[in-house]
Write a structure and sequence with these properties.
This protein has about 140 residues and is of the alpha/beta class. The protein has five helices and four strands, in the order βαβαββααα. Strands 1-2-4-3 form a four-stranded mixed β-sheet.
Length: about 140
């Protein structure tokens, strides 16, 4: 199950968010996930980023893989998305807001699945390749 809670005034299409997440989970053969997505403002994402990453700045997305049940067959994940930062990224990268939001969702789910870009350039390239595949 994918649950979306929008704590902002910005309207988004929940159906498109769910569709892209389901696509990644299916293609990655990720099994059953319950994912909670919380759309937040800059202050909240900055607070979370400082608490969990030690970075005192807003960011576009934060992903947290949680508990596993039934021998790892069922998993829980949480994704926090700052829509203002996604909008800033869209403008900077000359993308539509929806394309930038799609990227944020793919990026977040890949993090839940264990992909990373922070430890090595090799891992970053692998993750970028996956992102491009799901967004084209």
């Amino acid at each position: 199950m994918i649950e979306i809670k929008n704590l902002t005034q910005q309207k988004v299409r929940d159906d498109l968010i769910i569709k892209i997440i389901e696509k990644v989970l299916k293609e990655e053969k990720a099994g059953k996930w319950d994912i909670s997505i919380c759309l937040v403002g800059c202050a909240k994402i900055k607070e979370l980023n400082k608490s969990f990453k030690g970075k005192d700045t807003p960011t576009d997305v934060l992903s947290f893989a949680g508990l596993e049940f039934k021998g790892g067959e069922e998993k829980i994940g949480e994704i926090f998305v700052c829509l203002k930062e996604v909008k800033n990224n869209a403008k900077k990268d000359n993308l539509s807001f929806q394309k930038a939001l799609d990227w944020a969702m793919v990026h977040s789910v890949l993090h839940l699945l264990g992909y990373t870009h922070e430890k090595s350039e090799k891992q970053a390239k692998r993750m970028r390749k996956k992102e491009q595949a799901y967004l084209n």
